[in-house]
């Protein structure tokens, strides 16, 4: 369940970034701040790995966002995930700085600035995840309303068992039992769907 929750959060973050990239391409300057906040750490890491100097990496990162503002319309959401496109953008900007020869010591040789792996899941993995997610929701719908709401609150909304017990005005042990029994029913449902 925790994996499903983190997968949902990751998918939501990717979608927000994709939408921000599209808005930026349409001229929405506020989208640049959103993109910066969600990508700066990763892109700085890429620049730092290649350039080997914090100041140089900061300068390269600034160039990345300036160029992004100017070239956002080149992003095609059908061809690449936003973070893959931005990572390539950052890598190329850092390599450009290496090629100019104006970089301080500590940078790697240009030949060592290898392409970054694309961690975007393959299409078949995305399909399996989507099917699994759909089956989880089908199985959750099969639970009684009370159990369904408590499980959703605990695993999708982040409420603790103690908070749920207080909200439902029941002892903590009762809440734990309700959720445990609900999770057992979910497991049976999911195992049955995988067996068929």
From TrEMBL:
<dbReference type="GO" id="GO:0006352">
    <property type="term" value="P:DNA-templated transcription initiation"/>
</dbReference>
<dbReference type="Pfam" id="PF04542">
    <property type="entry name" value="Sigma70_r2"/>
</dbReference>
<dbReference type="InterPro" id="IPR007627">
    <property type="entry name" value="RNA_pol_sigma70_r2"/>
</dbReference>
<dbReference type="InterPro" id="IPR007630">
    <property type="entry name" value="RNA_pol_sigma70_r4"/>
</dbReference>
<dbReference type="GO" id="GO:0016987">
    <property type="term" value="F:sigma factor activity"/>
</dbReference>
<dbReference type="Pfam" id="PF04545">
    <property type="entry name" value="Sigma70_r4"/>
</dbReference>
<keyword id="KW-0238">DNA-binding</keyword>
<dbReference type="InterPro" id="IPR036388">
    <property type="entry name" value="WH-like_DNA-bd_sf"/>
</dbReference>
<dbReference type="InterPro" id="IPR039425">
    <property type="entry name" value="RNA_pol_sigma-70-like"/>
</dbReference>
<dbReference type="GO" id="GO:0003677">
    <property type="term" value="F:DNA binding"/>
</dbReference>
<dbReference type="InterPro" id="IPR013324">
    <property type="entry name" value="RNA_pol_sigma_r3/r4-like"/>
</dbReference>
<keyword id="KW-0805">Transcription regulation</keyword>
<dbReference type="InterPro" id="IPR014284">
    <property type="entry name" value="RNA_pol_sigma-70_dom"/>
</dbReference>
<feature type="domain" description="RNA polymerase sigma-70 region 4">
    <location>
        <begin position="139"/>
        <end position="187"/>
    </location>
</feature>
<keyword id="KW-0804">Transcription</keyword>
<protein>
    <submittedName>
        <fullName>RNA polymerase sigma factor</fullName>
    </submittedName>
</protein>
<keyword id="KW-0731">Sigma factor</keyword>
<dbReference type="InterPro" id="IPR013325">
    <property type="entry name" value="RNA_pol_sigma_r2"/>
</dbReference>
<feature type="domain" description="RNA polymerase sigma-70 region 2">
    <location>
        <begin position="36"/>
        <end position="100"/>
    </location>
</feature>
<comment type="similarity">
    <text>Belongs to the sigma-70 factor family. ECF subfamily.</text>
</comment>
């Amino acid at each position: 369940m925790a994996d499903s929750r983190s997968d949902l959060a990751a998918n939501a973050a990717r979608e927000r970034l994709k939408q921000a990239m599209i808005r930026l391409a349409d001229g929405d300057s506020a989208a640049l701040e959103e993109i910066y906040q969600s990508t700066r750490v990763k892109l700085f890491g890429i620049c730092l790995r290649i350039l080997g100097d914090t100041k140089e990496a900061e300068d390269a990162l600034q160039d990345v966002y300036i160029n992004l503002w100017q070239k956002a319309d080149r992003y095609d959401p059908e061809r690449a995930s936003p973070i893959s496109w931005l990572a390539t953008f950052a890598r190329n900007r850092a390599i450009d700085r290496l090629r100019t020869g104006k970089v301080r010591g500590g940078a790697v040789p240009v030949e060592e600035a290898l392409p970054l792996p694309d961690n975007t899941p393959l299409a078949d993995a995305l399909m399996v995840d989507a099917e699994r997610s759909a089956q989880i929701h089908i199985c959750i719908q099969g639970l009684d309303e009370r159990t369904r709401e408590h499980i959703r609150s605990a695993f999708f909304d982040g409420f603790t068992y103690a908070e749920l017990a207080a909200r439902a005005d029941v002892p903590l042990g009762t809440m734990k039992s309700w959720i445990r029994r609900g999770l057992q029913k979910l497991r049976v449902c999911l195992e049955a769907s995988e067996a068929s």
